[in-house]
Amino acid sequence: MKTPDDPDKDLFREAMREVKRLRTENEAPQPPKPIAKARFTRLDRREVLRESLQPPADDLLLGTGDELCFRRPHISQDILVKLRRGHYVVDAEIDLHGLNGAQAQEALRDFVANAIHRDFRCIRIVHGKGRRSGPRGPVLKNIVNRWLQHIDPVLAFASARAVDGGSGAVYALLKTKR
Which CATH architecture has domain 42-174? Predict the structure, then answer.
């Protein structure tokens, strides 16, 4: 607090305004922080995405279960139940029938990327039941199952209600910016 009878304090502060404190001997100079580098380049991300779309080398790892169901650990079971019951409005849909594995992967990648970009909350992916897939089992269903689990904005997915395709389709819940 300034006192009117002590002008020396004001003069001292004015004289010392641009003075910088000297380091003491036990105070080491701080090295400059390194420049931040991106951990992944676009090519790296594409390679990771490409690998995630490949089926596992061991065919025994391919699931042949009828219903698909997945949720991230922070998503409650109640949300998954609502998703399975069709309580979310489906903002967009893709039908992968008639596509081979590579075509389905590309179509699915583009569809999900577009849905995320457009800030959709819920999408439906029709993959079929794989009845004509032969001994390998439901190829498209397995691609959808595996790929959706590797996409961070996909919070949960579950097989659709019977009227929406049953075990031949999934509802996927996406993270939104809203």
Answer: 2-Layer Sandwich (3.30)
Provide the terminal-to-terminal Cα distance of the chain, rounded to the nearest Å: 49
Q: What are phi and psi of 160, to 5 degrees?
A: -75, 170
Task: Give the type of residue at 112.
Answer: V
CB neighbour list of residue 97: distance below 8 Å, 6 or more residues apart: 126, 128
Task: Tell me the per-residue pLDDT of 37-85, one tens digit each, with 9 for 90 and over.
Answer: 766 566 666 766 666 666 555 443 444 457 899 999 999 999 999 999 9
Distance separating alpha carbons of residues 173 and 154, to the nearest angstrom:
6
**Mean pLDDT value of segment 136-142:** 79
Element (H, E) at 139: helix 139-149
Domain ranges of the chain: 42-174
What does the pLDDT look like over 90-100, one tens digit per residue? 999 999 988 88
Query: Any alpha helices (H) in 21-138, and if so which ranges?
Result: 42-53, 77-84, 101-117
What average pLDDT does the chain have? 81
CA gap 40, 150 in Å, rounded: 16
Encoded tokens for 79:
């949300």
